[in-house]
Design goal:
The chain is α+β, with helices and mostly antiparallel strands. Helix content is 31%, strand content 16%.
């Protein structure tokens, strides 16, 4: 279903952030704050911890997540340490999440917050889960960070997207480099690499997110094709293990390899 023309103003107002992200109390309990540029929400989404940031990266990539709202409810004014997110799926079902760093951090405040979240979710006919994004496998975390910058659609992609999809339809299964190098006769293959990663990030192509997705040995050379202001990892990967990247397939259904069962 195409959600691009749906008016979300009601939900945007109802689930506007109820908690301001700041570094209050960080002298006692250090934590990370910041924001990501959300393409699904068309605004910056603030996070109060690395766990929140990772979960928002996941939601940006997840094709079943249509919309999500950070800090959407105020369970109790004293419970400022509870991080929450509401996700609306393609089935128009809502899911309330409490985001925590570790299963070992179950304090009395957490238990009370958890109980009230459960009751609120039940009253709204929502699903409810407590999740721990920082416990994801390291390779999945790295892939989340790697792919998110490629969600941005650039004007230069439009002339290549259909051709890249068409080439993969003939190859059926191929590596990122194989697809990019199939354009060598008409363009520098490094122009095509970002297009392929964009198609992966937006769900057109399937990949196994349990395996490392890389830029091979070309990360330092790609800035001229992406722009100096773009944010992506600049570590260059060398060695035989990066000569062939993970195989990708043409998109058939959204990839479930990333989703811990208790998230969705």
């Amino acid at each position: 279903m195409d959600w691009s023309n749906r008016n979300w103003s009601k939900e945007d107002k109802l689930y506007a952030p109820k908690r301001k992200v700041d570094n209050k109390g960080s002298h006692n309990k250090p934590h990370v704050i910041g924001s990501i540029a959300s393409y699904k929400m068309s605004r910056d989404v603030a996070y109060h911890s690395l766990a929140e940031c990772l979960f928002y990266y996941f939601l940006e990539l997840d094709q079943a997540s249509v919309r999500y709202y950070d800090q959407p409810i105020n369970v109790h004014k004293a419970m400022v340490s509870c991080s929450r997110c509401t996700r609306i799926s393609s089935r128009l079902s809502s899911h309330l999440y409490q985001i925590k760093n570790s299963p070992d951090m179950e304090t009395e405040i957490f238990k009370l917050c958890n109980s009230r979240c459960e009751k609120l979710a039940f009253s709204q006919n929502w699903k409810y889960s407590v999740i721990y994004p920082k416990t994801l496998p390291e390779v999945v975390v790295r892939n989340l960070k790697f792919l998110n910058p490629y969600l941005k659609k650039r004007k230069s992609y439009s002339q290549w997207v259909d051709q890249v999809i068409n080439n993969l339809s003939y190859l059926e299964t191929s590596s990122v480099l194989d697809i990019a190098r199939s354009f060598t006769a008409s363009v520098d293959f490094r122009y095509i690499l970002p297009v392929v990663y964009h198609l992966i990030a937006t769900g057109v192509f399937n990949v196994n997110l349990q395996k490392t997705i890389t830029l091979g040995n070309f990360s330092g050379q790609l800035r001229q094709f992406l722009g100096e202001s773009d944010s992506f990892e600049t570590v260059q990967f060398t060695g035989p293990e990066y000569e062939e990247e993970g195989l990708i397939d043409q998109k058939v259904d959204h990839d479930d390899s990333l989703k811990p069962q208790n998230w969705i």
